[in-house]
Amino acid sequence: MKKYISVLKITALVLMVIIACSGCGLLNLAGTLNNGAVAPTNPPSANDVIYNDPYYSEDITYSAVISNPDNTTTAVAGTNASQNTSAPSTDAAPATSESKTEKPTSAPATEDTTVNTFEDGDYLANVQDVLFNTQDENAARKVLVAAGFDYDPIQDVYYTQLDSWQRNFGFNSIYDSVAPMVGMLYSTSRIRFTYDDKDWMVEIWKGQYGITAGGEIGFYNKPTDRVMKHYDCVTDEEMITMSFDFYNMDEYVFTRGPEKHWWLTGFKFLHVGIPQYIELDMTLGFPNRKMANAFEAGLKKEVKNQQLIDPMKYTRTGDTFNIVW
Predict the structure, then answer these.
(1) Are 304 and 315 in contact, with CB atoms under 8 Å apart?
(2) From CA 149, how far away is CA 167, in angstroms rounded?
(3) pLDDT value at position 54?
(4) Distance from C-alpha of 261 to C-alpha of 263, rounded to nearest angstrom
(5) For a disulfide at 157, which of 66, 69, 112, 152, Cβ 3.0-4.6 Å?
(6) Tell me, what DSSP letter sits at residue 170?
(7) How far apart are CA 309 and CA 312, in angstroms?
(8) How many other β-carbons are positioned within 10 Å of the β-carbon of residue 218?
């Protein structure tokens, strides 16, 4: 059943790309996937596993090493466990049922397999890697970049570029008003403050964006005498350091930053998230104490406004804020 669900997910992704453009390099995709899966020519040994893959005419033989969540290694199907077992990591305590899963403290270990194990979810990740993370600029990747986005193959996350074309249009609350009409169902929080003869705003979003779930942090300003509440995107000199960890149902999903940005985003494809069950653990660093004080005044008001709907809390260290929402 899991394989059928994976196939359906891939079908949804391919249909999305076909609708977005024509000639999206699907023939190159098929060739890449086919060339990358080469069945071993040697006869299977006692330590090999025979995998009956319905997408190949012959059985695939491979040796697999599976990493458990506690960083120990388990040998599969007759492999020598004593040769492949490592001591458990002591970097972080295991998550309990009463707390959310912790953000990984180090990069995941590379799995030592020659042939793809085709575990649940691997199909979708492989298709996205071929379409959007390739040195060959196929049509699918060109469409993604032209839309102002890029792809992180390590986390399978889509995000906005630093100089995406959206930066030319600033922000207006009308954007949020029409979002539900195009399948975007999210919660938003606006933190407003005045500093250096400008009105500033940090806006935060989290929720469902069509067939993705994700979060955003935007940073904007406008002249204080501008009657219209239309904000400009900050300049490169005005950008601040941002980061956030994205949790869904208390489970860690991905991270973005830290980096200087005006619109830090992250979206997980075919991921479902209800805004009230999504948590953003954010860090914002300001350039000086005066600006940080002005921001904190606006933040306190927003924390009070969100108290009954979707509680927000924060801590401050110097000119840097950690906000959990």
Answers:
(1) no
(2) 12
(3) 42
(4) 6
(5) 152
(6) -
(7) 9
(8) 24
d(CA 272, CA 52): 31
Answer whether 280's CB lies under 8 Å from 246's CB.
yes
The two tokens of residue 162 are: 């630093």
CB 143 within 8 A of CB 21: yes
pLDDT in tens, 191-245: 999 999 999 999 999 999 999 999 999 999 999 999 888 999 999 999 999 999 9
Is the pTM of the predicted complex or chain greater than 0.70?
Answer: no
Q: List the chain residues with pLDDT less than 70.
A: 1-99, 104-123, 134-136
34 by DSSP, 3-state: which?
A: helix
Q: pLDDT, tens digit, for every residue of 175-184?
A: 999 999 989 9
**Considering only CA atoms, which of 139, 146, 170, 186 is closest in space to residue 262?**
170
- Collect all residues with Cβ–Cβ distance below 8 Å to 216 and sequence separation of at least 6: 203, 204, 205, 206, 263, 264, 265
What distance in Å separates the CA atoms of residue 137 and residue 31, rounded to the nearest whole number? 15
Element at 130 (helix H, strand E): helix 122-132
DSSP E strands in 178-250: the ranges are: 184-195, 198-209, 212-223, 232-233, 240-248
Tokens for 302?
A: 């927003």
